[in-house]
Q: What sequence folds into this?
């Protein structure tokens, strides 16, 4: 699956996108965020508090309970601040 | 209903956007322009967005506005990149037969651009750069349309 990071999530992780093979025990956005949290200090910082994060699956806003599949584009970002 | 959405670093021309929405049947055209507020030592805003999703999300909101009110045209232009205090940042323009629909849809769209469109702002003050936090008051403004 394709992962995208924006704003301070991108800064903390240190990259704007990457691809990841879906793991057997990762079935929701929350599972994925918790998996990413364990990948290193930057990820731990970015994904430490999921209440501060929002997610999109295939360019649609989703909650953390949304299911994911291997051909999805999943994005993580802070609450939006446009306008 | 026509829908025009643009995400761009360049400034926009309000008169040209209004002209593009003019057609037979339009009796009301409401526009909202947001500016970078000067003050507190702000030197610039830097905006990034999620290319692809931003346009799709604004289009979804425009379509929803078209279901709620009888509209003839919607135009949303949002700038990205570095913007100085006093510069225009966002334009929402709505054409309808009657003003009540145009005013309401314009406000609906702006509330949802604030809370749903995938933009993020950093503010620069002197040498320091900080991400702007989302405001609860913006969520509250969008909630009232539910």
A:
């Amino acid at each position: 699956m394709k992962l995208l990071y924006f704003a301070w999530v991108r800064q903390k992780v240190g990259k704007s996108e990457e691809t990841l093979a879906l793991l057997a025990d990762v079935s929701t956005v929350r599972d994925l965020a918790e998996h990413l949290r364990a990948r290193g200090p930057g990820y731990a910082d970015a994904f430490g508090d999921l209440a501060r994060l929002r997610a999109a699956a295939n360019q649609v806003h989703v909650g953390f309970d949304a299911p994911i599949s291997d051909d999805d584009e999943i994005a993580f970002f802070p609450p939006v601040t446009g306008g | 209903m026509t829908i025009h959405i643009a995400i761009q670093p360049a400034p926009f021309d309000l008169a040209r956007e209004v002209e593009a929405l003019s057609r037979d049947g339009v009796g009301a055209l409401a526009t909202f322009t947001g500016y970078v507020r000067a003050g507190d030592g702000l030197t610039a805003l830097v905006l990034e967005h999620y290319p692809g999703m931003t346009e799709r999300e604004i289009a979804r909101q425009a379509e929803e506005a078209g279901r709620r009110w009888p509209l003839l045209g919607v135009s949303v232009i949002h700038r990205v990149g570095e913007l100085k205090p006093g510069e225009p940042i966002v334009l929402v323009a709505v054409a309808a037969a009657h003003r009540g629909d145009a005013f309401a849809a314009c406000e609906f769209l702006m509330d949802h651009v604030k809370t749903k469109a995938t933009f993020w702002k950093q503010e620069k003050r002197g040498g320091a750069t900080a991400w702007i936090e989302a405001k609860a008051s913006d969520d509250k403004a969008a909630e009232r349309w539910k």
